[in-house]
Amino acid sequence: xxxxxxxxxxxxxxxxxxxxxxxxxxxxxxxxxxxxxxxxxxxxxxxxxxxxxxxxxxxxxxxxxxxxxxxxxxxxxxxxxxxxxxxxxxxxxxxxxxxxxxxxxxxxxxxxxxxxxxxxxxxxxxxxxxxxxxxxxxxxxxxxxxxxxxxxxxxxxxxxxxxxxxxxxxxxxxxxxxxxxxxxxxxxxxxxxxxxxxxxxxxxxxxxx
Length: 209
Fold this sequence. Notes:
Layout: H1 2-18, E1 46-49, E2 54-63, E3 67-75, E4 83-86, E5 89-91, E6 94-96, E7 99-103, E8 116-121, E9 126-131, H2 135-143, H3 147-169, E10 186-187, E11 190-192, E12 204-206
Antiparallel strand pairs: 1-9, 2-3, 2-10, 2-11, 3-7, 4-5, 4-8, 6-7, 8-9, 11-12
Helix pairs in contact: 1-3, 2-3
């Protein structure tokens, strides 16, 4: 029940955020207070090491039936000769708008707090980044004064934490393997980390669609 109410609440705030059928909100008839408060401390992408010719650019989170995270890189040239991995699995970088990205498989709601590790290596040196998708909601909530954006971020954070708690309450062995999302989906603002590898500068948020 709690998880269902949290989902209704997130849906209603998404309607407000995208100005979609706002007179018929998903949580109409319910008074729902998010059960999980957003932390005041905003986590950042953790980066370590460096590879010549590749610069980490940032992350974006997109939402279809499941979430996915894209890790963006700028390259001085072609990406041949570099190996890109997500949690130990190799991925071929995709070119987009002058950048390259690799994307996680679909992420279940209960797994949004799991830290994802990305490595890039040229065979002799390695760059590493760690990021949990749920951090996006925390960072955005703590960095905006817009009431609707805050409401959506708080509702989304609480829903995903409630999904995590629900997963932990059921018998083990029932979890399904994530599937790769299809289609373009909805993109949330890119968390841009303007940096040379191993030389982190404070992140700046820009729109990226």
